[in-house]
Amino acid sequence: MSLFSLLGAIEIGLIFSLVALGVFISFRLLRFPDLTVDGSFPLGGAVCAILISHGTNPWLATLAATAAGAVAGLLTGWLNVKLKIMDLLASILMMIALYSINLRVMGGPNVPLINDPTLFTLLQPEGMDDYIARPLLLLVIVMAAKLLLDWFFSTERGLAIRATGSNARMARSQGVNTGAMVLLGMAISNALVGLAGALFAQTQGGSDISMGIGTIVIGLAAVIVGESILPSRRIIYATLAVVIGAIVYRFFIAMALNSDFIGLKAQDLNLVTALLVIVALVIPQLKKRLTRRRA
Predict the structure, then answer these.
(1) What's the CA gap between 134 and 138, in Å, rounded?
(2) Has this prediction a pTM greater than 0.90?
(3) In which band, very low, low, confident or very high, does the pLDDT at 235 lie, cut at 50, 70 and 90?
(4) What's the whole-number mean pLDDT along residues 40-66?
């Protein structure tokens, strides 16, 4: 694999580590099967791309995309908490609705960002190639998001969200407003996904209506791979594992698709993803069996 391909894999892996952190919050901390991700990721890209193409400052456009993702997650939580719609069904309904909303936002199937300024063109150091600067800038953004999450989930409100996911009945008996915690957790989760969508659109030169297909699978794969590499219940290590998992996942995807020996092509991406998730799920079970036999 060439250096360019390696840095490209790291770049995409860092972007999707934000998706993975969002999926980690909904699936692991809240125990909320959230498929909104497939809609909030392109929503973030759509909002950011359309604003930048109309002359909005990239910082404000990225912030607006993050807020749009948070609103999408909030609405999913509202369908579940207030209207008592099953969590999985609520997220499916929101995902379907967001497809039409994204088309409305963009005014078409895609919005190109060819010569428009982005966060990366504004922050790129002079004399540094963009394929090197982008991963470095993304690393700073991802680590900042990770550290903020580590801090937040150690606060009283963050612990209340974790308690809601672990045992909602027990949390309510301790005076926690579990409905409000679900809404807050879902908003934070999809805000991260919306941010990832905005950054993805800026690195890839535009937003497309199909860019969200399979996003939830990628997020889950990153979480599962990360937990296999660094299993831990401490939030500081769990979030680190998710980030590492997303990068490792993209590295293996790039390695498989760039291997002439294997002969895989771009259309095999979902197949490679499924196989990688299967391997990540089977390895912990094999470790347990080996441990039992030795005992």
Answers:
(1) 6
(2) yes
(3) very high
(4) 96
pLDDT digits (tens, 9 = 90+) for 125-140: 887 888 888 999 999 9
**Count of other CB atoms within 10 angstroms of residue 160:** 20
Domain ranges of the chain: 3-209
> Token pair of 91, please?
């997220």
The phi, psi pair for 207, rounded to 5°, reads -115, 145
**Does an H or E element contain 62, and which?**
helix 58-81
Pull the structure tokens for residue 215: 């996003």
Report how far residue 99's alpha carbon sits from residue 42's, in angstroms, rounded to the nearest whole number. 9
Beta-bridge mates of residue 111: 207
Q: At what angle do helices 37-53 and 58-81 cross, to 10 degrees?
A: 150
Quick one: average pLDDT of 24-41?
A: 95
Q: Which residues of 15-38 are buried (b: 16+ CB within 10 A; e: fewer)?
A: bbbbbbbbbbbbbebbebbbbbbb
* Residue 1 scores a pLDDT above 70: no
208 with 185: CB under 8 angstroms?
no
Q: Which helix (H) or strand (E) holds 137?
A: helix 130-152
